[in-house]
Amino acid sequence: MSSSRIDLNGCKNGSCHTKCNKEARAKLSEDDLCKDVKSVCDSLSVRCVGKWAEKKIYLLYQYLGIFATGMKDKWSEINYIEICSGPGRCINRESGEEIDGTALAVVHHPAFQYLHKAIFFDYNPVVVEVLNKRIEAIGLTSKAIAQRGDYNNPESICTILSQQCSTTRSLNLILIDPTDCSVPFALVKRIKKTLQNVDFIINVATGTDFNRNIPMAFDDKERAAKYETFLGDTTFFHNAINIELYRNRDYSTLRNKFREAYQNSMKSIGHTFFDLNMIEHYYDILFAASHYKALEFWNKAKAIKYDGQRELSFE
Description:
Oligomer: single chain
Mean pLDDT: 90
Number of domains: 1
Number of helices: 11
CATH class: Alpha Beta
Order of helices and strands: EEHEEEHEEEHEHEHEHEHHHHEEHEE
CATH topology: Rossmann fold
Shape: globular
Radius of gyration: 19 Å
């Protein structure tokens, strides 16, 4: 195999303040959309991200190419669905560099031609409007669309999916990309029931959201309820082993238990092929599928190493 280069249409955005701390970002952004800075490419909104975001984009990009190319002649329809899509362009708050986010990386991918439909969901109407403008600007409205969708209402999202995608003849790749552990497992379960043939790539904020709230969640039923909803499991904070780990402040093992609990929930809906990729110490990228071939594809995608210079080489 040979190396490949991915173009995320990167450019320096001189308006970015760079190196904003948490307090500054709270003032300068809303729902992670910067209120001060617009894209230098199209004057539309950009999402503020950390430097580690590119690793997630590249992993998705590589899998999409292998997945779509490998399956295009085996299924009547291949779809890509993204939950928490963002506006399509993001800006690295460390460097001030602006790049394509996951949504635009997908529609610019050479393998996009093999997709029947790409559907991007976000609850923020501003984000949806901006992303649709960007999709329209590159002339792909017949195959790609941003839709408003609240992940706390799985039925509404799945109603749209059942209208846009074949529920029996399609193979579907689902990216769920929240900033915290707030997407209910009920959504994952409902998508599986609706579309049947799905691979999931899920951003699990183990190292940030869950890690910060471990001490409080064991003593606060309301806080614990958030993670129980995310896991689709009401036993985690009542498990004697987990309680003992909490009392001993063994948070590292608790994080692993949390990962295991989520995978057990995935197993309950028929997804038994897993891989977990830690993006630095911030979050996990969980891959879950119901067929071994999907995991083979995923491992091929993972073998393409990102060196930080947008050069991807096979080992």
